[in-house]
Design brief:
The complex is a heterodimer of chains A (275) and B (358). With 275 residues, chain A is mostly helical. The longest helix of chain A is centred in the N-terminal third of the chain and has 33 residues, at 2-34. Chain A has 2 domains: 2-57, no CATH class; 72-272, Orthogonal Bundle (MetI-like fold). Helix content of chain A is 75%, strand content 2%. In chain A, helix 3 packs antiparallel against helix 8 (184-213), helix 5 runs parallel beside helix 9 and helix 7 (171-179) packs antiparallel against helix 8. Chain B has a 6-stranded mixed sheet, with helices on both faces. Chain B has a 5-stranded antiparallel sheet with strand order 13-12-11-14-20. Chain B has 358 residues and is of the alpha+beta class. Helix content of chain B is 23%, strand content 36%. Chain B has 8 helices and 20 strands. The two termini of chain B are 41 Å apart. Chain B is elongated, with a radius of gyration of 25 Å. Chain B folds into 2 domains: 4-223, Rossmann fold, CATH 3.40.50.300; 236-357, RNA polymerase II/Efflux pump adaptor protein, barrel-sandwich hybrid domain (OB fold (Dihydrolipoamide Acetyltransferase, E2P)). In chain B, a hairpin with a 2-residue loop joins strand 9 (203-208) and strand 10. Classes of the chains: A mainly alpha (275), B alpha+beta (358). The interface between A and B is medium-sized, with 22 and 27 residues.
C-alpha cells in the first residue's frame, strides 16, 4: 500500500518536527536572545547580533548597562556549593540507602516516606520557615546555610535512588564474598559498592544538578550575601533579557554535560555490570 | 576436612520453628543431602551451618570448634548458591582468586591454584571471561571452583542445580559426585529433587516441618521407610490402612480396613495396633499363568486383580488394579502389557511390603 506508507511517513515527520520544536524551541529562543544586540518589535529576528552580552557576562568587558555584571563569581559559587552539597549528601545517602535496603528497619517504609515528604509540600512555606530557624541560629545569609538547604532537597531523592540501587544487588553476592573469607565491610567495599556505582553516580549527579539550579530556597535563605547563579538569573530576567538568556544557557551547560556523561557511563555499566 | 555436628539446633521466626531441634552428625568426607519439600527447614539448616543464621538454641561444631557464634567468614566453609552468585564485575579468574587474595597468598600460587580449579571443573582457559558470557551450567561450575579452590573444611551446596535444565542437571550431578569422590570434602547438599539426592549421597536426611524424619543411605530410605512421610515422599507408594493381627518370626500380619490379609515386614517396633501398609508399585509382581505357585491359594500376598487403568509410560506400563476391595497402583514391563478389564494374578513379596505406624 504505497499511499498508506506515505501517509504514515508524513504523520511521523509532523510529529518529529513538533517534538523538535518543543524541545529545541525554548533553547533556540534563549540562544537568539543571548546574541541579540538590537531587537525591536515587531521584527521576528534581532536586527543586530553580537557577543556583547556574552563578553559582559564572562567579565571580559565592562558595560554601564543595568544589570550587566560578570556572572563568573556567581557561577563559581554555585559550583562550589553544589560540589560540597554532593559530598555531604552522599556521605548520608550511601549508608542510609544501604541500611534501608539491607536491613529490615522497623518502619523502613515509613522512614522512606518521611524522606519524600518535603517534596509533597510547597517549597515556599518550607523555606520561609527554614529562614526563621536560620535567623535564630545565625545561619541566614551564609554559605553553610545554603548548603544545608540544598542538602535537604538533595537527600530526599538521593536516599530513594541509593536504596533502590542497593536493593537491586542480590544479597547472595555479598554472602558469597563472606563465604570466601571477606568481612562484612570488605564485602561491601569490594562487591556491593562497585556494583552500586552507576546508581550512586546517578544519585550524585542528580544532587549536583538539583543544587545548581536550586532557586527558591537559596533565595530565601541566602540573601543578601549569598548570590548563586540562579539568583543572578532571577535578577536579570526582569529587564535584561539578553543577559538573562546568557545566564540561563551557562546554567544549562553542566546539566547537559552530565546527562551526556551519565548516558555513556550508565550504558557501559549496565551492559558490563549486572549481567 | 572435618566432621560436622549439629546438636539440638533450633531456629525460629516468631512462633514458628523453622528448624525444630535438629541433631545431625556428618562424618569426615561424607556427602549428606538434606532432602525435603519446600518449607521443611533444609535451607534454614544450611544457613545455620554456614553462619548466616544464628540459631536460637543448640550448637554447631566443625571439627572440634564450636562455631555457633562464629561469623561465616571465619568458619572455613565453601558455599555454592542456587543462583551461582558470581560477581558480575569480575572476570572468572578474579572470581575464583578473590578468596585467595584475601588470604594474602602469593600471586604465582594464586594463579596456579586458579588454573587447577578450572581444570577440575573442566573449564580451563576461561580465566578472562565474564560471568555474563557464560551459560548457566558453566557459571555453576565456576561457582563450584570458587568454593573448592579454598580447600574448605566443609562444602555447602544450596540447591545448586535447580536453575539448570533437566539434561544439564543430570550431567552436573554426576560431575559433582565425581568431584566429591576425588577430593573427599565433607559436604552438605540441599535439594528437593529425590533423584538427585539418591545419585550423589552417602546419606540422605529427609526433613519435614523442621524435623528429621529419617536418615540413612539412599537404598535404606527408599526401601525401608520408617514412617508414612518418608514412604510417600520417595517415589510412588500405595498406602493401605489396617490393623496389626500378629507377628511371626521377622514378619507381621496385617488385616486391612477392608478385611484383606497381608504379610509384611516392619523396620521399627510397632507400638500401636493401627498401622499403615506401604507398597511400591514396582513391587507388585504379575504372575503369568505358567508361573509356579500362580494357581495356589493361601499363599501370602497373592491376589486376583482386575486392570482398571493401563497407562503407557515409555519404559514401563503404569497400572491401576482392583484387588478385592482395594485399588492399587502397579508397574509392569512392556513385554506383556495388560489392557483394561484384563484379569491378572499378583503377588507381593513380604520383604517389600512395609508396615508402618499409622
Amino acid at each position: 500500500m504505497h499511499r498508506k506508507r506515505l501517509i504514515r511517513l508524513a504523520i511521523e515527520l509532523v510529529l518529529l518536527v513538533l517534538v523538535l520544536l518543543i524541545l529545541i524551541g525554548p533553547v533556540s529562543s534563549l540562544v537568539i536572545w543571548s546574541i541579540a544586540e538590537t531587537w525591536y518589535w515587531p521584527n521576528a529576528f534581532p536586527q543586530e547580533v553580537g557577543l556583547q552580552y556574552w563578553l559582559q557576562a564572562l567579565g571580559l568587558r565592562t558595560s554601564l548597562a543595568i544589570g550587566a555584571v560578570s556572572i563568573v563569581p556567581a557561577f563559581l559559587l554555585s559550583i562550589m556549593i553544589a560540589v560540597i552539597t554532593v559530598v555531604f549528601s552522599m556521605a548520608i545517602t550511601i549508608p542510609a540507602g544501604y541500611a534501608l535496603a539491607k536491613y529490615h528497619i522497623p518502619l523502613g517504609g515509613f522512614v522512606l516516606f518521611l524522606f519524600l515528604m518535603p517534596n509533597a509540600f510547597p517549597q515556599m512555606p518550607i523555606f520561609v520557615n527554614l529562614l526563621r530557624i536560620y535567623t535564630d541560629i545565625g545561619l541566614a545569609g551564609t554559605i553553610p546555610g545554603v548548603i544545608i538547604a540544598h542538602m535537604l532537597v538533595g537527600i530526599v531523592f538521593g536516599v530513594w535512588i541509593t536504596s533502590a540501587t542497593f536493593k537491586s544487588i542480590p544479597p547472595s553476592l555479598e554472602e558469597a564474598a563472606r563465604s570466601v573469607g571477606a568481612t562484612k565491610f570488605t564485602a561491601f567495599r569490594r562487591i556491593s559498592l562497585p556494583l552500586a556505582a552507576p546508581g550512586l553516580l546517578a544519585s550524585a549527579v542528580f544532587i549536583f544538578i538539583k543544587s545548581l539550579e536550586e532557586f527558591t530556597g537559596t533565595f530565601f535563605v541566602g540573601l543578601p550575601f549569598v548570590q548563586t547563579l540562579p539568583m543572578t538569573l532571577y535578577s536579570a530576567s526582569g529587564y535584561n533579557m539578553q543577559f538573562a538568556s546568557v545566564t540561563a544557557i551557562v546554567l544549562m551547560v553542566p546539566s547537559v554535560l552530565f546527562m551526556i556523561l551519565i548516558q555513556k557511563v550508565l550504558r557501559a555499566e549496565y551492559v558490563g555490570g549486572m549481567g | 576436612m572435618s566432621k560436622l555436628v549439629l546438636q539440638n539446633v533450633v531456629k525460629q521466626y516468631g512462633g514458628l520453628k523453622a528448624v525444630d531441634g535438629i541433631n545431625l552428625e556428618v562424618n569426615q568426607g561424607e556427602l549428606v543431602t538434606l532432602l525435603g519439600p519446600s518449607g521443611c527447614g533444609k535451607t534454614t539448616t544450611l544457613r545455620c551451618i554456614s553462619g548466616f543464621l544464628v540459631p536460637e538454641d543448640g550448637n554447631i561444631y566443625i571439627g572440634n570448634r564450636d562455631v555457633t557464634e562464629i561469623p561465616p567468614e571465619r568458619r572455613g566453609i565453601g558455599l555454592v548458591f542456587q543462583n551461582y552468585a558470581l560477581w558480575p564485575h569480575m572476570t572468572v579468574f578474579k572470581n575464583i582468586a578473590f578468596g585467595l587474595q584475601l588470604r594474602k597468598m602469593e600471586k604465582s600460587d594464586i594463579a596456579r591454584r586458579v588454573k587447577e580449579s578450572l581444570a577440575t571443573v573442566k573449564l580451563s582457559g576461561y580465566e578472562d571471561r565474564f560471568p555474563r558470557e557464560l551459560s548457566g551450567g558453566q557459571q555453576q561450575r565456576i561457582a563450584l571452583a570458587r568454593a573448592l579452590v579454598l580447600e574448605p573444611d566443609i562444602l555447602l551446596l544450596d540447591e545448586p542445580l535447580s536453575n539448570l535444565d533437566a539434561l544439564l542437571r543430570e550431567q552436573m550431578r554426576f560431575e559433582i559426585a565425581q568431584i566429591h569422590k576425588r577430593f573427599g570434602i565433607t559436604t552438605i547438599y540441599v535439594t528437593h529433587d529425590q533423584t538427585e539426592a539418591m545419585v550423589i549421597s552417602d546419606t540422605i536426611v529427609l526433613m519435614n516441618q523442621g524435623r528429621i524424619m529419617q536418615q540413612g543411605p539412599p537404598a535404606e530410605i527408599y526401601q525401608r521407610p520408617t514412617n508414612r512421610f518418608v514412604a510417600g515422599f520417595m517415589g510412588t507408594t500405595n498406602f493401605i490402612d489396617g490393623e496389626l493381627t500378629g507377628t511371626e518370626s521377622e514378619y507381621v500380619r496385617v488385616k486391612t480396613s477392608h478385611g484383606v490379609e497381608l504379610v509384611g515386614q516392619t523396620p521399627n517396633q510397632l507400638k500401636e495396633k493401627n498401622v499403615c501398609v506401604a507398597i511400591r508399585p514396582e513391587n507388585v509382581m504379575f504372575l503369568d499363568k505358567g508361573t509356579p505357585g500362580a494357581a495356589e491359594n493361601g499363599v501370602d500376598n497373592v491376589f486376583d486383580a482386575r486392570v482398571l487403568r493401563a497407562t503407557f509410560l515409555g519404559e514401563t506400563m503404569d497400572y491401576e488394579l482392583q484387588v478385592g476391595p482395594h485399588r492399587v497402583r502397579a508397574r509392569g514391563g512392556m513385554r506383556l502389557p495388560y489392557r483394561v478389564d484384563d484379569r491378572v494374578r499378583i503377588s507381593i513379596d513380604p520383604n517389600q511390603l512395609n508396615v508402618l505406624p499409622a
